[in-house]
Amino acid sequence: MRLRDRFEPLLQQRKQAELFRRVPLVTSPIGTRIQLNGKTLVNFAANDYLGLSEDPDIRRQVCAADDATFGSGAAHLISGHHLHHHLLEDELSDWLGVERVLLFSTGYMANMAVQQALMQRGDTLIHDKLNHASLLDGARLSEAELKRYPHRNMAMLEKRLRAAEGQAMIVTDGVFSMDGDMAPLPDILELKEKHDAWLLVDEAHAFGVLGEHGRGSFEHFGLQADDDTLRVGTLGKAFGVFGAFVAGSQIAIDALINLARPWIYTTALPPANALAARIALKKVQQADAARAHLRALIQHFRAEAESLGLTLWESETPIQPLILGDAATAVAWSRALFEQGFHVPAIRPPTVPKGSARLRITFSACHTLEDVARLLEALAALYPCKS
Ligand code: PMP
């Protein structure tokens, strides 16, 4: 069979159902204001929650540093582990109050690594059904059995824990990437204790944002992570740079160093990225005012959107989805917003469940109240066409 014969009908079908994926090209520096397809837009699509990707200090300091090379030349275990990696790991572990942090190139790889390295054949991974795709792929790479529970349903989580074979690991997003709601961590921790399970929390959308000082979901709920809990963070969202990490106990990280294939068999993150993340971490630590502004934007958006009659999701985070149902409506709304000067992408199946295509609006501390007011105006003009 020719490759074309397999994929042409499938892609054609996707085009007809408004499910074909295209890559939007940004021709300006990426930030809160972007040039896309020749138009200047306010960007309500990024995960750059504190606006740090636009921070000129980070760029300046990295460019001025003689030891910040853009290639590490090898994996961490060979000769790629530079002082900037080492210092970043230490600084992140001090910040989070954990024994150890291990750097990865992406959150995707970190999520692949933890489940593959720590869970064995005969063990059970128990996932929230709306977990990020990389967590699901991590479960597939592991030899443990995968079980899932309906989104945030603690009774079903407990049922899965009771039936689990071998060691159980509960796996959940801290903040769900397409819905913006949070995992009910206090209840999850109680069940974890009761059933002697381990826990993996993906804090990609929580670190830097949630909690008084941006230390994520655990800080938000006033909880401590114990030795059987691992947290994954990415540096590509609130940190505004690139890379990722796993935070946990010394023994958990030693196990990853020795067993995690997505960490062992890949080139280390460039030292320049590690330095950029060290500078970004200092800024995240000093971002209380930015977090307060972000919270104010979210509250304003929610209050006004509700008064317009828009149906909002139960989310206190910078991810505010507007669920529209079918893909064609979501695409039409996204296009109309583009015409009004906003980039708000339509998120469609299979990224989200069928019938729940949506606009995923995300806020950054670099947005102004006026940006949000203008977006609300544009949404209000669209609302009557929701059928
Ligand atoms: N986890 C979640 C919840 C995410 O949303 C993402 C990014 N979309 C990742 C992990 C992957 O992180 P990275 O972009 O660093 O690979």
Features:
387 residues; alpha/beta; Aspartate Aminotransferase, domain 1; 16% strand; 7-stranded mixed beta sheet; 2 domains; Aspartate Aminotransferase, domain 2; 15 helices
Describe the protein's architecture and organization.
There is one protein chain. By secondary structure, the chain is an alpha/beta fold. Helix content is about 40%, strand content about 15%. A seven-stranded mixed sheet has the order 3-9-8-7-6-4-5, sandwiched between helices. The protein has a three-stranded mixed sheet with strand order 1-2-11. A three-stranded antiparallel sheet has the order 10-13-12. Helix 2 (about 55-65) runs antiparallel to helix 12 and helix 5 runs parallel beside helix 6 (about 135-140). The longest helix is centred in the C-terminal third of the chain and has 20 residues, at about 290-305. The structure holds 4'-deoxy-4'-aminopyridoxal-5'-phosphate. 4'-deoxy-4'-aminopyridoxal-5'-phosphate binds near residues 202 and 204.
